[in-house]
């Protein structure tokens, strides 16, 4: 047996074991995020009372649900790259669909095409996430970003779901707006800020390579809280097969 064949024999089982470990950890973290989101969502939307100490709890619930909504999107993003459960396209596809539907009724199958276009043409006119007319302006770029992903399909889906909540399930309007609509909007701002604008905006310093992406220098904790480590964005673009929870180690290994 040649040295090359011997290496392949050793690397094959090691690669399979690594993929299984990544899938186990990734699916466990995804399940935790989904279950936490659903728990807060149900309790807040259907059972929250705006009386007494409950008034003080509302901002905490909004903040937690905003962060968990970011988590839903990041899990779906890993599914697009097949990094949630390597070599299991069906698992990635269905988990991604579930996460984006819970997030804001988005279509996983529509977003995946845009996301790969973003990777192929990052920071150019062909990048659906980039605003070539406002490469530094925050709100103008955000509006372009919002219109790209929130269209008539998403609007109709959310209107129908909201009516089901209000008319069929009996959810209070105030709770629905405060604990579902508001976290969705705030999480979109959070994702755009830390996952698109800060990494890809043009500055006086030129980008280092074709990925046209920068990473932040936040600590592990701040990185997790801001965008589930997605702010380590150059690392993601250079190694898109890495799941979100492995981006800190990828950055340390630079």
Structure report:
The chain has one domain. α2 crosses α7. The chain is built from ten helices and no strands. The longest helix has 45 residues. The chain is mainly α.
Topology (elements, then pairings):
Elements: H1 3-47, H2 54-81, H3 89-104, H4 108-120, H5 138-149, H6 152-168, H7 173-200, H8 220-227, H9 233-238, H10 247-252
Helix pairs in contact: 1-2, 1-7, 2-3, 2-7, 5-7
Task: Give a summary of the structure in a few sentences.
70% of the residues lie in helices and 0% in strands. The protein is an all-alpha fold and 254 residues long.
Largest sheet: none
Tally of DSSP helical segments: 10
Low-confidence stretches: 1-10
The secondary-structure element order is HHHHHHHHHH
According to DSSP, the number of beta strands is: 0
Q: Percent of residues in helical segments?
A: over 70%
> So what's the overall shape?
globular
**Rounded average pLDDT:** 91
Based on secondary structure, the structural category is mainly alpha
Distance between the termini: 35 Å
What is the total number of structural domains?
1
Strand content: under 5%
**What is the radius of gyration?**
20 Å
């Amino acid at each position: 047996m040649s040295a090359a064949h011997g290496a392949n024999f050793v690397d094959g089982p090691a690669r399979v074991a690594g993929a299984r470990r990544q899938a186990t950890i990734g699916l466990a973290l995804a399940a935790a995020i989904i279950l936490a989101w659903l728990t807060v969502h149900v309790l807040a939307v259907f059972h929250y009372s705006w009386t007494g100490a409950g008034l003080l709890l509302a901002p905490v619930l909004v903040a937690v649900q905003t962060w968990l909504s970011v988590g839903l999107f990041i899990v779906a993003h890993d599914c697009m790259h097949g990094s949630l459960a390597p070599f299991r396209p069906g698992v990635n596809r269905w988990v991604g669909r579930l996460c984006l539907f819970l997030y804001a009724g988005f279509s996983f199958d529509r977003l995946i095409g845009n996301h790969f276009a973003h990777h192929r043409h990052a920071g150019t006119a062909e990048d659906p996430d980039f605003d070539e007319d406002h490469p530094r302006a925050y709100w103008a770029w955000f509006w372009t970003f919002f219109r790209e992903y929130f269209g008539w399909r998403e609007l109709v889906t959310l209107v129908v779901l909201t009516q089901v909540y209000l008319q069929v399930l009996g959810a209070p309007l105030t709770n629905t707006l405060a604990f579902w609509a508001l976290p969705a909007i705030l999480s979109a701002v959070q994702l755009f800020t830390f996952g698109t604008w800060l990494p890809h905006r043009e500055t006086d310093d030129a980008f280092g390579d074709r990925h046209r992406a920068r990473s932040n220098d936040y600590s592990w904790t701040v990185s997790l809280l801001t965008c589930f480590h997605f702010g380590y964005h150059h690392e993601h673009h250079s190694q898109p097969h890495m799941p979100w929870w492995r981006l800190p180690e990828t950055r340390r290994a630079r």
